[in-house]
Structure formats: structure tokens, C-alpha cells
Amino acid sequence: MVVTPELLTLRGIEASYGKAQVLFGIDLHVHQGEVVALIGANGAGKSTVLRIIAGLLRPLAGEITFRGERLDRLPPHDIVSRGISLVPQYRRIFGTLTVEENLQVGGYVHRRNPRAIQEMLDEVYTLFPALARKRRTLGAVLSGGEQQMLSIARGLMARPILLMLDEPSMGLTPKLAVAVFQDIRRVAQSGRTVLIVEQNAYAALSIAARGYVLENGQIALAGAAEELIHNDYVRKTYLAA
Q1: CA gap 182, 131 in Å, rounded
Q2: Which domains does the chain have, with CATH numbers?
Q3: pTM for this structure?
């Protein structure tokens, strides 16, 4: 097995919302070029992990390093410029903007480099041909699946080294959720490193190399995705098997 460089590392991360502590000593790492799934029940703290990595919430304790550089003291825009992009829950696209205008917003960090933005537009339209066909369509009239596709593509416009996805299947029908995970697999095959938070444990683990199970703000299990899929506790608790 080829061991790739460790890209992202969380050590001893603790976090709270006000007086309520929600993360307790999280250790997690992501290697370059792999897909890692973070699964768990609603309220386990999964989205909080992504918010802390993105700089939207400061940890109480611990440290985060990305490509060897300390991240947890940087503001969100500096974290984006270093190569981390977060695709949030509920899609949050701009309904009054066209598909292409939404994508251009995603490339804001490269606003002084029009050539880079055009290169990324070309890339996302290659990855998502449906968006290319609807580039002049307003975001508000897209289907739920198309809006999620656009949200992922907008995250790619920042040219991330690490793409983080927060509950990409939320609010989608099972058929549309399958299509979204096919999109994510395609993004990973394009060479991006992906960290995905998802309640649909089986779908997330099916496209991941490794996984973590988060329970009550702590890592309960970690290992190869295939091993977690066949783990009796994971199957009974998260896979309804």
C-alpha cells in the first residue's frame, strides 16, 4: 500500500457553544488524495468538526495543522486561501444569481486572476455537464439535486486541496442522494482530497478509504471504511443492518 503524506491533522480538539462543550479531545487525520468519512448521529458534533477546521469556530483546546502549518489561529478567509473549502449544509446557493454567477462567487479568492477562474469554470463544467447546460439558469429554479451539485461545484471554484462536505445528501430523495454521491466520487477521482460529514453512513463509507465514528463529541471508532461497514456495532447502530 502506498502511504501518502498526511495533509490535515487534528490533535486534542475541544469545542463548545457557550457553556455547552460539544467536542472532547478529537484526534483525526486526512492523507493527501484520500476520501475520509466522518459519520455519527445527529448532534454528535460532526458539523462542528468541519466548522473548526474552516475557522468558523475557535477550539477551546488542541491544534490543527494543514500541510504542516498551524491553522487554528487563522481567520476563515486565510484558511480558504491555503486550500480548504467547505460546502455547507442546506446548499445555501444564491437563488437570484445564475449558475455561473454562483460559481464565480465561489472563485472570489482568485478574483484578481481571471484566468484561474476561467480554468476552474472549465473544470467544473467538465465534471458537471448538467451545470454547463444550465449556466444561465437562476439558482432558485434548479432542482434539489442540481442545487447540491452547484454547491459542490462552487466549493471547487476556490481550487481547494481539501474539499469538506457537510451532509451533502440532506433533504434529498434517495434517488437524488445516489446521484450526489456519484458526483462526489467523480470529484475524488479528479484528484481532490475529500472529508465528508454525513448521516447516511453507508453511502459515505462506500466512497471513502477510511472513516471515523463520532459519538457524543468523541471518536468512538476509526479504521478502514470497508472494515467499518462490516463492523457489527456500526451495522446495528448506523447501517440499520
Answers
A1: 15
A2: 6-238 (3.40.50.300)
A3: 0.92
